[in-house]
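Box 4.2: Ligand-aware structure prediction
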Amino acid sequence: MSQERDTTAPDASHTALKSADPGAAGAAVRGETPGARVAGSGRRARDGNHTAASVAPGTAGGESGDAAGSPDQGRDVLIDVRGLKKYFPASRSLFGRTTRELRAVDDVSFRIHRGETFGLVGESGCGKSTTGRCIIRLHDVTSGEIRYDGRDMAPMAEKELKPYRKRMQAIFQDPYSSLNPGMNVLQLISEPLEIHSAFSRAERRERVLELLARVGLKSEHADRYPHEFSGGQRQRISIARSLAASPEFVLCDEPISALDVSVQAQVVNMLEELQDELGLTYLFIAHDLSMVRHISTRIGVMYLGKLVEVAPSEELYTSPAHPYTEALLSAIPVPDPKAAPAGGRILQGDLPSPLESITGCKFRSRCPFAIGRCAVQEPELREIAPGHYAACHLHE
Ligand SMILES: Nc1ncnc2c1ncn2[C@@H]1O[C@H](COP(=O)(O)OP(=O)(O)O)[C@@H](O)[C@H]1O
Ligand code: SF4
Ligand SMILES: [Mg+2]
């Protein structure tokens, strides 16, 4: 053994990528719709069935995944978020003490199983990105746990986090701002390899070319710069870059929101293909429900820093329980009116400021069903059907 190198994940994936057929994958990306893809995916369908009951509502005293008889018993939980809070200082006194806090994420608990896609939706500003960034520890957390493969990363310092950094990657909405315009594609994609492993220069180039083929780009693209590509192509470069260090978890933060509708389907389709082949786990964030339906195994709906509903994807669309979810669904144009959820309503009013202190249910200022209790008591996220959770007094 002449050279010391990290041989675990990179090589494993190297093989996986080598054995993959980029041409076939490219054809699939071009030819299939996300819906068709999902319908044909046995693995995804299986996940949909048995990941049903896997949110961990509440904080202290909430359902424990380790408890005997828990719905998660025997399930492979990759990420277990418990009572996550992230407060940003909103104003400070003359002496630098925080006098006002913005509760971007306020006591959120859920689990993501290995190999699944957990969709996270809600209006802009409700705390989705902050949740995702806390999970991959781009933010320090105010309190709560982020158990990754059983170990709580929340209190870890950078040195301890290092091995986890390679296992978790992210792609964001605007690939242009996340790709350094002064680096060419070869440099952009090989940069994570330089940080996380000891590939030689030639090995790095070979790996970059494999990754490019895998995301539907050509080898001659390696020497070009981000501004020479379309939005969809730039997102493909971001995806290739995120996969370079062979992660197991990818935070997909609105990766298709800025793309043309026709390109959105291709990118979602490609992410699904990659997930199946590389065994990836995704947290897929979107601001509207139409974008997460087909890729998600389960979906969580956020409102003002809280999870208000979590359900298996199809169930959320066919039987939404929370008035906010209903309103979000009614905002989606439905090609077949018969498929529209019963009782869907248009969302009234604006999202209140997260700086406002709201007693009771945070949704009550916009809720057409609010009752007296909603003003005084905050509803807890409760299981209302197997694997289906909602935080609303109407379901208690
Ligand atoms: N770094 C930050 N500093 C201060 N406030 C922030 C920061 N990041 C996000 N916020 C605030 O936290 C709230 C949630 O933001 P975000 O998580 O980005 O929402 P979303 O992704 O759902 O649009 C917003 O009110 C936003 O202004
Ligand atoms: S708890 Fe009350 S205000 Fe909140 S969503 Fe349910 S009915 Fe509406
Ligand atoms: Mg966001």
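In the box above, the bound molecule is adenosine-5'-diphosphate. The chain has one domain: 9-66+75-334+347-395.
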